[in-house]
């Protein structure tokens, strides 16, 4: 496993890695908070997104399929698909220096400051880990600390991506913790159940 100096990305990758490690064969067809995708499609999308971030940085190792049109069936080796994507992303981000002003990303916004670019990849991995966890009846991998670190990134990135990558924000509730606040801001219902 490749590591980087980016603890936020490591934490998000580990959330996704742990969630997939716990998935069972029967889980791949389950519906998810991503209304049009099952668990297999969210996995394929999340892996493709991590590869897209790496390819934007390094020029190599891009997605093997369109992350926004993922196949509905589970890949032959789901854990291997994910692990190879996380490795490529970790290697790519390991080349990014803290404080770099213009890190290439696959986002419509283009190059972003290093901390925002890393946060964008982490946000993608962590939120899709949550999608898969709740779809498969497992506990949320998003804890308060991770959610608090991701919320500022979400506030920078989400608005231009509404209707494409994110649904409209849901109204906040007074009792929301950091995770519920993050999920609602990204258009997800923190109480979603399968």
UniProtKB/TrEMBL annotation:
Coiled coil: none annotated. Gene3D superfamilies: dinb family like domain. This is TIGR03086 family metal-binding protein. Residues 9-133 form the Mycothiol-dependent maleylpyruvate isomerase metal-binding domain. Pfam families: MDMPI_N. It comes from the Bacteria.
